[in-house]
């Protein structure tokens, strides 16, 4: 269960909020102007979040080799003849005869 409380009230009731989180197995969302600002969660919830973060990081970092082989891609075509399309100019370094 999630319990929302404004930050001004949370300051005055911090000890009670901690008891709700630890013993009542609640999650407390501290709000400011009705918008979530922070959350109080149990240490067990925090451990679960850390495990999920680690699992997500491991999935992102898995090697590209595990994604499958790229040997099934078709061979690239051979280089085209530069004069095939009637190219009229080519680069010559300075000092070479035209």
Write down the overall geometry. elongated
Q: Which strands sit side by side, in order, in the main sheet? A: 1-2-3
Taking all Cα atoms into account, the compactness measure Rg is 32 Å
CATH C-level of the domain at 2-63: Alpha Beta
> Which percent range describes the beta-strand content?
15-25%
Uncertain runs: none
Task: Look up the CATH topology of the domain at 2-63.
Answer: YefM-like fold
* CATH H-level superfamily title of the domain at 2-63: YefM-like domain
Note down, in words, how this protein is organized.
With 98 residues, the chain is α+β, with helices and mostly antiparallel strands. Strand 2 (27-32) and strand 3 (35-40) form a beta hairpin. The chain has 3 helices and 3 strands, in the order E-H-H-E-E-H. The chain has helices spanning 7-12, 14-23, 43-61; strands at residues 2-6, 27-32, 35-40. The chain is elongated. It starts with a strand and ends in a 37-residue tail after the last helix.
């Amino acid at each position: 269960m999630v319990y929302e409380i404004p930050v001004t009230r949370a300051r005055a009731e911090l000890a009670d909020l901690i008891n709700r989180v630890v013993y009542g197995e609640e999650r407390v969302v501290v709000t400011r102007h009705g918008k979530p600002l922070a959350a109080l969660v149990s240490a067990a919830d925090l451990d679960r979040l850390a495990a999920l973060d680690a699992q997500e990081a491991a999935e992102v970092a898995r090697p590209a080799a595990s994604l499958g082989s790229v040997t099934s891609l078709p061979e690239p075509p051979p280089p085209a003849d530069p004069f095939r399309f009637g190219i009229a100019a080519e680069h010559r370094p300075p000092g070479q005869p035209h």
